[in-house]
Write a structure and sequence with these properties.
- The structure is a single chain.
- The chain is built from 23 helices and two strands.
- It is mostly helical and about 425 residues long.
- A hairpin with a 2-residue loop joins strand 1 and strand 2.
- The protein is elongated.
């Protein structure tokens, strides 16, 4: 059975050394070796802080020579532990870690408890000590951020997306993983705002963001730290254009916003497919994940169908649409409600109608509607041409249509030459 601390560890971005040390600490704890568990936990904590310092650029207001000396000592087996403690405590000429004085004192307390264990002093050490130290780590590890590391990380992210320095196919995940150790949780909102500025440009009076921004934000959701993921989702949802662009690129991520029912409703009620966007991947993701309440699904279908403009679903999205009775509603709207006879909708969605006729059995309703629509004087010409071409190139479907028309005593549409007997091309 996993301890709560073990479960927490799985959500953290730790180095291999720290992970191994924490694993040994948990093993010692479970066997009742509490002194050993506290020692290994302290070493794991120190190892994590050391690795953050080694990965950092020059901290703000720290002399370069001093920082080079610290980093050199952090790499020495016999000095790294003391040096790590020293840089945690350092305040002059400037602090290396942006933490409170109380937090520095707590580190000193736990170092003394580690010494109690290592030197077998008279102070008793038991399970409560180990558990208390673990709580300290869980509560405070994210606060140990190198002073100035936010600016350094932003520079590295910007450089990552500069093809002069980085191949375009390089995964930004390592940089996304650094956020948890380089940025305090309370500073994440400010960090994302600065990141947004880097990848935003102005055209006329409007601001636009570059595709690198949603690409990097998606990488954040592949790193382990749940707090960083939560703050990233908050940032994205606070910016509607970014939210739409992000979800259109990564529709499976819509689950991250599942708790915001109002946001999800607005998404399908007024935004999907608006302006001619091809949003079947995102709409299918909403349906697949049950994010649209069952009582609202039919309402959603009608609104979506009314806004579709030239989009055709990919085969991978068809099962989700079938399961929600989308195509049943499409047939009703296109043929029974007569959308096919609307110049705007009929012409814009000629490809969708032809795809539908080819993908599913042709219904009596479709035959009756198409025959009625393309017999009179006024009809959507683009739709007429597309449907005629469809039947010319699909003789089985042409015969299926003609068979139903004969059986139901429906006159064939005079404006669709491919359906006439014999079929001819005008």
């Amino acid at each position: 059975m996993q301890l709560p601390f073990e479960q927490w560890l799985t959500s953290q971005s730790l180095t291999a050394d720290a992970t191994s040390l924490f694993g040994e600490a948990v093993t010692c704890y479970k066997t009742g070796a509490y002194r050993a568990a506290l020692i290994m936990s302290y070493l794991a904590f120190q190892s994590t802080i050391r690795d953050r310092a080694l990965a950092a650029s020059l901290p703000t207001a720290i002399p370069p020579g001093q920082w080079q000396n610290h980093q050199s000592n952090l790499r020495k087996d016999d000095e790294w532990d003391q040096t790590t403690f020293d840089i945690i405590r350092q305040k002059n000429p400037a602090p290396i870690f942006v933490i409170s004085e109380d937090l520095r004192d707590q580190v000193l307390y736990w170092k003394n408890r580690r010494n109690d264990c290592a030197h077998f002093k008279s102070n008793a050490i038991g399970a409560p000590h180990v558990e208390a130290f673990w709580m300290f780590i869980q509560s405070n590890l994210a606060k140990f951020v190198v002073n100035g590391s936010a600016g350094a990380l932003l520079s590295k992210i910007e450089r990552h997306y500069d093809p002069n320095f980085t191949p375009p196919s390089t995964d930004p995940l390592p940089l996304a993983t650094e956020i948890a150790t380089a940025i305090e949780q309370k500073a994440l909102s400010s960090f994302f705002e600065q990141l947004e500025k880097i990848f935003t440009y102005q055209f006329g009076q409007s601001l636009y963001f570059r595709p690198e921004l949603p690409h990097f934000l998606e990488a954040i959701f592949r790193q382990k730290d749940s707090c960083v993921q939560t703050e990233t989702a908050k940032f994205i949802s606070s910016r509607e254009p970014l939210l739409l662009d992000f979800l259109r690129r990564y529709p499976s991520r819509v689950q991250l916003f599942a708790s915001d029912a109002a946001l999800i409703r607005k998404l399908w009620y007024s935004q999907l497919f608006a302006g001619g966007y091809r949003d079947f991947p995102l709409y299918a993701a909403l349906l697949r994940n049950g994010l649209i309440p069952l009582s609202e699904v039919l309402e959603a279908h009608v609104l979506i169908i009314s806004r579709i403009k030239g989009d055709v679903p990919h085969e991978e999205h068809v099962p989700d649409l079938i399961a929600s009775n989308f195509f049943q509603k499409l047939e009703e709207q296109a043929f029974d409600e007569g959308r096919i006879n609307s110049f705007g909708w009929g012409n814009d969605n000629a490809a969708l109608i032809c795809w539908y006729l080819g993908r599913f059995p042709i219904s009596v309703l479709a035959v009756r509607s198409i025959s009625g629509c393309f017999t009179g004087t006024y009809y959507p010409f683009n739709a007429r041409d597309a449907i005629n071409s469809f039947f010319e190139n699909n003789p089985q479907k042409r015969d299926e249509f003609r068979s139903i028309a004969a059986k139901e005593n429906i006159s064939l549409p005079s404006r669709i030459p491919a359906l006439q007997d014999p079929p001819h091309i005008q």
